[in-house]
Amino acid sequence: MDPHHEPHSHEIDAHTGIATTGHEWDGIRELNTPLPRWWLGIFYATIVWSIGYWIVYPSWPLISGATRGVIGYATRAAIADDMAELQARRASQAAGLTQASLEQIKADPNLFRIAMAQGKAAFGDNCVACHGVGGAGGKGFPNLNDDDWLWGGTPDAIQQTLQHGIRVATDSDTRISQMPAFGRDGILKRDEIVAVANHVRALAGLPTDAKADLARGRQIFADTCAACHGPQGKGNQEMGAPNLTDAITLYGMDLPTITETITNGRGGVMPAWGPRLDPTTIKALTVYVHSLGGGQ
Amino acid sequence: MSIRSAGDSEMSVSEADDLPLFAPSKKVYPQSVSGPFRRLKWGLLVVCLAIYYLLPFLRWDRGPNLPDQAILLDLAHNRFYFFFIEIWPQEVYYFTGLLVLAAFVLFLMNAVAGRIWCGYLCPQTVWTDLFLAVERAFEGDRRERMQRDDAPWSADKLWRKGAKHLVWLMIAWWTGGAWVLYFADAPTLVRQLATLTAPGMAYVWIGILTFTTYALAGHMREQVCKFMCPWPRIQAALTDDEALNVTYRYDRGEPRVSVKQAARLRAAGQPAGDCVDCRQCIAVCPTGIDIRDGAQLDCIQCGLCIDACDTVMDKIGRPARLIGYDTEANLKRRQDGLAPVYRPLRLRTAIYAALILLVGGAMLYQLATRSTVGISVLHERTPLFVRLHDGSLRNAYTVRLLNKRPETRPFALSVAGLPGIGVEAVGVRATADFRPVIDVDPDSSREVRVLVTVPPGTPLEQSQVITFTASDLFAGEVVRTQDHFIAP
């Protein structure tokens, strides 16, 4: 084909009967095949749709915010509506929980099932950060599956702890006690701490250091520690004083850890959930925690 | 390939390469026909539609706690009811078995007599037949429809087309309407639909089914079989020379000549076939093909061309079944002057029949001997084990008990495998012989947290197998499963 010949843009291709675009490369001409009509129809329909969308929904960005749209839709309001709907749907089941006592909930299989489900969900949302999934706990964070309780494992005691927390400065009903920092505050000397630490291990039935002065340790324990932990080290749940003689420990029963505990004291905290969660949720959480395995 | 000079570029390549790659399909105007195959198809159409529309209303008494609908896919409660069978979601393999069985039945049908499914039973064929009957009622037969489609729009054309589409849409709506009845209590849902109080999902599904029925049976018809359905391709690989298929007997039909010329040729002692080339077989074909071209993908083997051809043969006084059910092998035998032989019992039909018996038997056995109780145990992972204050060791499990009977059943749970092992179910107070007794509601499952404790001093490895046993205290049915007891 003559390279100087520019085909007219509306030239009709003889073979297909379709107009060409006027583009030509090495004798190959490009057909101006029209878009399928169904495709074009949908394309125009989306444009028309978008105009309606601009009017109805928030769309155009402005300097602070965006156009509001005539129906006043907002994702934040939609979430609030969804949450309100969820509360309303739960209401019929939650009503039973709200009115029933902890004892009644435990006795009624249906209420128990609802409380467990709600409690499990609430535990996952609020408690696992410290107590771990399933309440497995960790160093300094009690395992809620075992049967050793610092502040009591009855349903009422658990509810009290949940409601008011532990060592919460702003709550007058909070659980509070203080393990003094015997070493840091200079109440006990270093060798005294070592002696009493060995005595604590002896109380728990654990082997002690051969050079330890156990008699001295026993004396120091009776003078200094027994007030809270009891003469046999069995603890006191009224004061949140742990039982030192059983197989369960919160921080560890090896000599360095006991020494550290006596030297610096301990004082773990737990938030008061009363101001954050509604009473029904606290009740459900109480049932759930009590049912993990250690409830009394 | 040789290198062409620039001057050759104008030269046309081969004829076949020049043809357009896409040929728009021609609209098919199937002509009405009467005969035994048409009557058979009408009969099957009535039977199939009656089953489809009436089955949801069939009742089946299952006692007070269960629905009384014979066939019900209760998605809300995760149950499938089929007469005396009740299937739970975890038994979905019965559906798999059913599909496998259906596939083998299809294979067997195909090996014996071709695409019986396509020609007579496929919903696409049944509904297309129904829609074609409506089309004929409003727009007349083939010739009339073709003429009207060519003619410009008129009041007559408008009302006929409009009425046809309206009736089509009504049928399509009822198709969707019957579909949803399989998923809820049919009489209740019908009442709800009539008073516009049915669940929104019901309307959505009716809408979807209305659209697909209207589009597939009204507008796409044979295109579904030709371009969308995988079965023609699969069956082409499954068929053999001994399978009965709708076949044109070219040994008898060729050469095609008119009646008068056939008389002339035969008088002169020259060959003349029975086919008079009247093209009736093409006119009645719902997929618009020429059966005389031989076996082909587009043929759904509905047998209507047999009726059409027999009608013509009867008129001109020639023997029937120039087109009929026959085999490729017989065509060859006839050409060689041999008598036709029909062999429905062949290796492949025997294998298919054996497979059907095997799969069907296995499913029946499984169904007859299946347990009405189930247990599954999940070991708690956080924590894997708990040391109690007295030094004993505890593992927690989530135990789920299934009760597939329509009455409440008490199950006593026990655990064995370690000395002094103790079991406790959280929230369960009843016991029998120190075993917790868990009541499970009719036709449901119950999950309980189970605590298994081993006394201090028990020699333990890191992991040991223990056995959970649930025994129905009344019926005595026992179910067991194993899990591990984990120690430090």
Tell me about this structure.
The complex is a heterodimer of chains A (about 300) and B (about 500). Chain A is mostly helical. Chain A has 3 domains: about 35-75, no CATH class; about 75-170 and about 270-290, Orthogonal Bundle (Cytochrome Bc1 Complex, Chain D, domain 2); about 190-265, Cytochrome Bc1 Complex, Chain D, domain 2 (Orthogonal Bundle). In chain A, about 45% of the residues lie in helices and about 5% in strands. Chain A has 10 helices and 2 strands, in the order E-E-H-H-H-H-H-H-H-H-H-H. Chain A has helices spanning about 35-55, 75-100, 100-105, 110-125, 130, 155-165, 190-205, 215-230, 255-265, 280-290, and strands spanning about 20-25, 30. Chain A has a two-stranded antiparallel ribbon with strand order 1-2. In chain A, helix 6 (about 155-165) crosses helix 10 (about 280-290) and helix 7 crosses helix 8. The longest helix of chain A has 25 residues, at about 75-100. Chain A is elongated and about 115 Å long. Chain A starts with 19 loop residues before the first strand and ends in a 5-residue tail after the last helix. The mean pLDDT of chain A is about 90. Chain B has about 500 residues and is α+β, with helices and mostly antiparallel strands. Chain B has 3 domains: about 35-235, no CATH class; about 245-335, no CATH class; about 375-485, Immunoglobulins (Immunoglobulin-like, Sandwich), CATH 2.60.40. In chain B, about 45% of the residues lie in helices and about 20% in strands. Chain B has helices at about 15-20, 35-55, 95-115, 115-120, 125-140, 140-150, 155-180, 185-195, 200-220, 220-230, 230-240, 250-255, 260-265, 280-285, 305-315, 330-335, 345-370, and strands at about 70-75, 80, 85, 245-250, 325, 375-380, 385, 395-405, 410-415, 420-425, 430, 435-440, 445-455, 465-470, 480-485. In chain B, a hairpin with a 5-residue loop joins strand 7 and strand 8 (about 395-405). In chain B, helix 3 (about 95-115) runs antiparallel to helix 17 and helix 5 crosses helix 9. Chain B is elongated and about 115 Å long. The model of chain B is unreliable at about 1-15 (pLDDT under 50). At the A-B interface, helix 4 of A face strand 7 of B.
